[in-house]
Amino acid sequence: MDSRVVVKISQRSDVITPHRLTVAILIREFCLIRETKEVCRKTIRDFCILSLQLIQSPDLTLDELRSSINEMVFNPDTDLLKKKFDAVISDIQEVGVRYLLDIIESFGTLIAVHPGLGKFVSVNKNSVIGYYLRRFTVSFDRLSFSEVTTFCESYKRYASGWNKTQSIATSETGNTLSSKTKEPQLNESDGNSSREWSRRQAELFIATQSSLILNNEERAMSPKELHENIKSLLKSNRSLAEAHFLNYLNYMRVKEYCGAIESLYHCFDRCADVNPMCSSEDKTKSYRYATLNLAILQYKFGHREEALSALEEAIKIAQAAGDNVCLQHALSWLYCLIQTNRHKLMEHSILKSLDLNLSYIMSLGIQSFIQYAGFTKGNPKQALDTITKSDIVNCQQSYRDLISSSYAQKSAIWLFYGKTEMSSLWSQLLLYLNTDNPTILKTHYGEGYCQAICSMACHLHLEGEYTIAKTVIGFAKERFPNEPNSHTWMLCDNLMYFQQLIYNEKLSEAENVAARIGVVNKWESCLRMAEILIHRRDYKEAHKCVNRILEKFKDGTQQFRMDFQVRAMILLSEIQIGTQYPDAAMPGILGLLNSTLAYANDYHLKYLASVAQLYIAHVQLLMGMSTQALSILDRCLVQILAHGGCYDRARAMLLYVKCLIAEAGNKEADERKADILQGIDLLKNVKRNFEKVEAFYRVKDVLYLQSQLYNEIDMTKERNQCALEFNSMSDSFPNINNSTLLISL
């Protein structure tokens, strides 16, 4: 008996609502107009699109429905349609049930076969509109007379608000604009909670919004708007588990833990409340995937122990049921949660997924393995060769999200290894990549796309193109307004702004930006804070910041990025240079820099290795070993000039000029003068690069050095010009510290 009741309720999922009747009336009036006069093709096309949208949309108020009619291109046909439509609505309110029954009966004549012509009069019964009218008519015929009377009264209340709005708008001529703007807002807020959603409308809405959140977040509803629609949807479909899962995804967008876990529990409850005739296998399947989703939720919020506990439970249930697919999904999350034997787990997951023909998990596992290899001394050549296998699978299966992720990962790998030009190239390839899927009319704009945009913005910023970089990052803000993708452009935007403030010596503002960076990446924030303290010459506090990172690396409890370790060691060497120069302890700094260089080479961090070599050359110059410094620069300048930004290129060439002039001190007068002239010529390009990134305190260092060199070769006019420019810049951009030309790189 209970099972029959459940079946009956599930079969009769359509609800007769005033909105559905109004849409049917609109279709009827348009069909009658077509019978009496010729209607242009554009009007027919616009009406077909409008009717399809109204059929698929949730229930609208009469004001909202009529405003959608007004959006059609104005012509005599649409004007006539609005007049006839308004007349029918008014007649239903005046006459009542008798006229309503006549309207319902007329729907059948629209799809009847003409007895003389043997063809359809207005609507093809197999079309979307024909199916809608037939289904509405059948549902209405099932109602009892008392239900019809109740529905008629409900429809009068539905239309009464619209009539009230019309009367206010026409009677108060002096206050017409305010009444038109205020009344629909009240109706919208009241009607949003009273809208009726059919099962099909709810499923379409959930599928559409889920797809947009995954593939094109810009077109998805905002978290607040989506939450209100889900609340309205659940009032009409309380047992719809998918709605609770969409609500869970929406809470995840704003990182609302309590709401996310509550929605997930509600989803599990609805999934567990299955038909009693279902097998035990279907019930256990629901339980194990529920536990797996709970583990993912805990992982997203950083609760590793809770996530691992839930994941172990999912693995036990899946093993007992022999569900290899669930086990592979669990395994792909297991190596994200543990720190030991991760490479073995990844290899096992990839091979097992290949045996089970789970191509998506296999391709995702390969990409995860490449990321892990980059952090653990993986060979770059083998890593790039391996990711090609993922590309083959992605192209064969048309995995648009994994294709974008692969391009973004290649860009990240090249950037990690210090090849910024190659990283920029792969980001551009991704932005030019056509991710349209013609079979499902869907374009993917996911995490990889956001990372590519931010990568290009950072590259432009390094080249001193601040305006263009700001425009590019603004595009990322519009395209990805919500979490978790918003964290990517937030970090990028703050890093760019921080670097610009450092160049401008606005250290107080830079300190605030460094604190904001800590919200997204605390170790990056720690490095940037140490950089600020070094600029302030507060070496004691800077040493504390650097030590936090070095101690984290020595801890070894969690996987730590080696580039952070190398950058921290470079900053430590800069602190030691500032505190020990010109003491005899300078050779000890070379030991630290050599260790830094060894770490960078072990992990194939070519650019950071070149930066470490720059510092080694700088220390050797301070120790009077200019010949050895030039030898070091010959090995690292190519990498810096090819892949460094304007600032790094400028300071590398400035160091080269210093070494060149120092080496010229042991030469003859003519050779020395030639070297000085060569150095002055190189300094002009250095000055342009510093000016481009607005590092004016370094521009003054260059001008000071130029004036000294001009003075040494008796070029008085040029010396005075440099001195004049230096004084002018000192008035416009005063240094917070004295000139650091000698000891700073």
TrEMBL record:
SUPFAM superfamilies: TPR-like
InterPro entries with a match to the protein in the record: Apc5, Apc5_dom, Apc5_N, TPR-like_helical_dom_sf
High-level lineage: Eukaryota, Metazoa, Ecdysozoa, Arthropoda, Hexapoda
Keyword Cell division among UniProt keywords: yes
Subcellular location: Cytoplasm, Cytoskeleton, Spindle; Nucleus
Anaphase-promoting complex subunit domain ranges (all copies): 244-339
Role of this protein: Component of the anaphase promoting complex/cyclosome (APC/C), a cell cycle-regulated E3 ubiquitin ligase that controls progression through mitosis and the G1 phase of the cell cycle. The APC/C complex acts by mediating ubiquitination and subsequent degradation of target proteins: it mainly mediates the formation of 'Lys-11'-linked polyubiquitin chains and, to a lower extent, the formation of 'Lys-48'- and 'Lys-63'-linked polyubiquitin chains. The APC/C complex catalyzes assembly of branched 'Lys-11'-/'Lys-48'-linked branched ubiquitin chains on target proteins.
Region (Disordered): 173-196
Keywords, ordered alphabetically: Cell cycle, Cell division, Cytoplasm, Cytoskeleton, Mitosis, Nucleus, Phosphoprotein, Repeat, TPR repeat, Ubl conjugation pathway
Spans traversing the lipid bilayer: none
Designated name of the protein: Anaphase-promoting complex subunit 5
Pathway where it operates: Protein modification; protein ubiquitination
Compositionally biased region (Polar residues): 186-195
Family according to the record: Belongs to the APC5 family.
Domain Anaphase-promoting complex subunit 5 N-terminal, residue spans: 16-159
